[in-house]
Amino acid sequence: KMDDDDDVPQLSSHALAALQEFYLEQQQREGMKTSQGFNQYSIGSIEEDWQLSQFWYSDETASCLAKEAVLAAGKGGKIACVSAPSVYQKLKEQDGEDFSACILEYDRRFSVYGEEFIFYDYNHPLDLPENLLPHSFDIVIADPPYLSEECLQKTAETIKYLTKGKILLCTGAVMEEQAAKHLGVKMCKFIPKHSRNLANEFRCYVNYASGLD
Description:
By secondary structure, the protein is α/β, with parallel strands linked by helices. Helix content is about 30%, strand content about 20%. The protein has 5 helices and 7 strands. The protein has a 7-stranded mixed beta sheet with strand order 3-2-1-4-5-7-6, sandwiched between helices. α4 (about 150-160) links the parallel β4 and β5 (about 165-170). The model is unreliable at about 30-40 (pLDDT under 50).
């Protein structure tokens, strides 16, 4: 029979079972990771959460950006990753190198990284722990979660507070003018890629002579 609420999308019992299975597998994967001495820093060790507008970089892009950050920070340099966890993870894989990194991130799952994790909400750009001193990072690499001027503007406040000068911003190509306006950064030739393709063209921007051109 035809019900009035036919237009209301309802998951069939089949789809529901598939979804439950998916979540179960995800939980099992999470469980396996801990039991197998899993590399907690590898990209994808924490799954993307689309509701938080999360898209991880491809391995290659994350490596390239991490390398650039290390070079830009210099020996013993300090690197802040703002909403760019896959770059932070790549940096941590290069253990023993002469630099330090921290991750500012809204997603508390990243708190597994201990003291280097700083809870960060771009809506409160300067609501940061006291031990994060102004202009204490040699480079800040940031990937604002949303393609909106408001998000960029607020993230920019955080970036300007943290950096001694160098900025590496990753955001959509459509943000070029706003990026220049709020951070004085210019688009690089390097094209960052994600592990899943994004609909929007994505680019990197810097305010110093980088290796990304």
